């Protein structure tokens, strides 16, 4: 990594004031593009914020509302749904289905009163390692600003997830 | 006494003399599923926990009470299944084809850590209030169902709006609360007593503190929950709990209908929760009788013998449920009716889903409406 790259990397590290709290983010990624994109970010050694767990599915079309709702229920602070760009889905129409499922999820999330900034849909190709890092950094910052998710055990006033 | 023996006592499972009428009457067993209510009763009596858990049929049961109503020994089979599900409950054990999305939604409401946005559907033509009124109108989760099952063309909110406008016609501006949460019916029947408990406490307190003297409910499942399952949670004398059809019957002089409505034939689907669970068979029918031009053609299996929509508690959906739904829709079509009227949003969801079968399209396609929608259409 050149010193220039190191500098840009530093620019996106978390703001000091909020450093103590690290969000829990769930990333759903399709096997053929976004997961490979995350891999590309890794092999090119692009640094990004690490506060997420990635769950690989074969295609973004598989990501049904239950996955996302369960993540929130179990305390995720943010959920990122990702897949191949339109036209690139390995299964041709999978990501179109993903959009429908995502919209359904969004409607439920809205009704439940979870802030819409906690849920995002992004298309990331296998070659876009840098973009993967960028999306993760940006989303992590956004979640940091929103604070712990409503069902997170680390939310103020919460008694560790116990009702 | 161990838990299974106790469950057997509470539900009269001990009284079973193994006649098998339950299995013979069970809609799921009749559709060909390897499912036997009788076996479940026997396993309870024999204290075979493993058999109950492992044969996989606990989730299949519709708890529609068809077997209860045919049992000569009055074994409360549906209650038995509810208790067994509670006894063997595991959160990850979701048989629902929606992957547990609805269970998660309900449990998030139970945890109650957010402020829901559940009032967006209110239109200008209906009046509601948030402070004081004689009537509290319980919307149930129709806004969630419409949001989730939008692809199926489910419009259960139409029934909710219609019920409110009926109340308005009676000169009542009901309380509709943004703090209402899921009644917990499906969690209770899925075995999640802990979450149900949270919801019950919240909802009962909400209605009690509103000081309304009447609670009007449209959804058959919510109604069952309020009338039966919430009973132990009230700290004072509960309000009068009425189904919208019971309410209309009690005050039918206040509604004025069009002189001559369009003549049409409708048929009525008794929701299992309204019918066998609460024994409300006549009230919806007499409301239909009030509507000018509407003729009710009964399905062959109606009233006490009605077949349920085969998906009451989000625990299961398979080819047997589909077969039951298709059979029911064919039965509805055979009456010559143009509309299938029901009082449960979930009947709408499941029957509409079944109608998506591309091989059967015209054979089973029929308009489905909530009872309240028909009433509003007939109003002057
Ligand atoms: S394979 Fe990537 S979205 Fe379908």
Overview of this protein structure:
- The complex is a heterodimer of chains A (163) and B (380).
- Chain A has 163 residues and is α/β, with parallel strands linked by helices.
- Helix content of chain A is 40%, strand content 14%.
- Chain A has five helices and four strands; from the N terminus they run H-E-H-E-H-E-H-E-H.
- The longest helix of chain A has 19 residues.
- Chain A is globular.
- The C terminus of chain A is likely disordered.
- Chain B has 380 residues and is of the alpha/beta class.
- Chain B has a four-stranded parallel β-sheet with strand order 5-4-6-7, with helices on both faces. Chain B has a three-stranded parallel β-sheet with strand order 1-2-3.
- The termini of chain B are far apart.
- The relative contact order of chain B is 0.13.
- The mean pLDDT of chain B is 93.
- At the A-B interface, helix 3 and helix 4 of A face helix 7, helix 8 and helix 11 of B.
- FE2/S2 (inorganic) cluster binds next to helix 4 of chain A.
Secondary structure layout plus pairing:
The complex is a heterodimer of chains A (163) and B (380).
Chain A: H1 3-11, E1 25-30, H2 34-43, E2 52-57, H3 65-73, E3 78-83, H4 94-112, E4 119-123, H5 129-146
Parallel strand pairs in A: 1-2, 1-3, 3-4
Chain B: H1 3-10, H2 21-25, H3 27-30, H4 37-45, H5 49-54, H6 77-87, H7 101-111, E1 135-138, H8 142-148, H9 157-169, H10 185-190, H11 193-210, E2 214-217, H12 220-229, E3 240-243, H13 244-250, E4 264-269, H14 273-277, H15 282-290, E5 294-296, H16 319-334, E6 339-342, H17 345-354, H18 361-364, E7 367-370, H19 371-378
Parallel strand pairs in B: 1-2, 2-3, 4-5, 4-6, 6-7
Helix pairs in contact in B: 1-6, 7-11, 9-19, 13-15
The complex binds FE2/S2 (inorganic) cluster.
FE2/S2 (inorganic) cluster binds next to helix 4 of chain A.
């Amino acid at each position: 990594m050149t010193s220039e790259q190191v500098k840009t990397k530093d620019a996106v590290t978390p703001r000091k004031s909020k450093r103590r709290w690290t969000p829990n983010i769930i990333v759903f990624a399709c096997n053929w593009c976004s997961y490979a994109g995350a891999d590309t970010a890794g092999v090119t050694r692009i640094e990004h914020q690490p506060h997420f767990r990635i769950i690989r599915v074969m295609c973004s079309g598989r990501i049904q509302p239950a996955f996302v709702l369960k993540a929130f229920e179990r305390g995720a602070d943010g959920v990122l749904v990702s897949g191949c760009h339109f036209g690139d889905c390995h299964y041709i129409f999978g990501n179109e289905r993903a959009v429908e499922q995502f919209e359904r999820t969004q409607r439920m999330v809205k009704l439940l009163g979870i802030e819409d900034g906690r849920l995002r849909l992004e298309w990331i190709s296998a070659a876009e390692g840098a973009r993967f890092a960028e999306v993760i950094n940006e989303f992590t910052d956004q979640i940091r600003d929103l604070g712990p998710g409503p069902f997170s055990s680390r939310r103020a006033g919460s008694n560790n997830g116990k009702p | 006494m161990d838990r299974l023996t106790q469950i057997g006592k509470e539900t009269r499972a001990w009284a079973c003399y193994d006649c098998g009428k339950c299995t013979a009457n069970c809609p799921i067993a009749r559709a060909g599923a390897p499912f036997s209510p009788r076996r479940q009763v026997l396993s309870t009596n024999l204290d075979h926990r493993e058999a109950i858990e492992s044969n996989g049929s606990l989730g299949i049961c519709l708890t529609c009470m068809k077997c209860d109503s045919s049992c000569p020994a009055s074994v409360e089979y549906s209650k038995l299944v509810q208790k067994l599900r509670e006894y063997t409950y595991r959160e990850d054990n979701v048989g629902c084809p929606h992957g547990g999305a609805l269970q998660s939604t309900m449990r998030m409401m139970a945890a109650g850590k957010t402020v829901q946005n559940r009032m967006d559907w209110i239109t200008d033509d209906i009046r509601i209030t948030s402070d004081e009124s004689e009537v509290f109108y319980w919307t149930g989760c129709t806004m969630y169902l419409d949001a989730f099952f939008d692809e199926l063309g489910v419009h259960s909110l139409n029934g909710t709006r219609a019920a409110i406008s009926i109340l308005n016609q009676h000169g009542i501006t009901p309380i509709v609360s943004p703090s209402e949460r899921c009644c917990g019916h499906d969690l209770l029947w899925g075995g999640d007593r802990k979450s149900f408990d949270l919801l019950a406490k919240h909802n009962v307190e909400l209605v009690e503190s509103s000081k309304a003297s009447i609670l009007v409910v449209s959804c058959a499942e919510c109604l069952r929950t309020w009338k039966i399952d919430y009973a132990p949670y009230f700290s004072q004398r509960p309000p009068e709990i009425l189904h919208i059809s019971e309410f209309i019957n009690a005050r039918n002089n206040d509604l004025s209908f069009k002189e001559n409505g369009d003549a049409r034939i409708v048929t009525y689907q008794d929701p299992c929760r309204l019918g066998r669970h609460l024994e409300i068979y006549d009230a919806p029918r007499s409301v239909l009788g009030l509507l000018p031009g509407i003729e009710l053609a009964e399905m062959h299996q109606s009233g006490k013998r009605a077949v349920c929509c085969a998906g009451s508690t989000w625990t299961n959906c398979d080819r047997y449920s589909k077969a039951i739904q298709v059979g029911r829709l064919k039965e509805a079509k055979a009456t010559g009716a143009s509309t299938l009227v029901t009082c449960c949003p979930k009947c709408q969801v499941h029957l509409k889903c079944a109608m998506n079968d591309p091989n059967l399209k015209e054979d089973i396609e029929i308009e489905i409406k909530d009872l309240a929608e028909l009433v509003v259409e007939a109003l002057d």
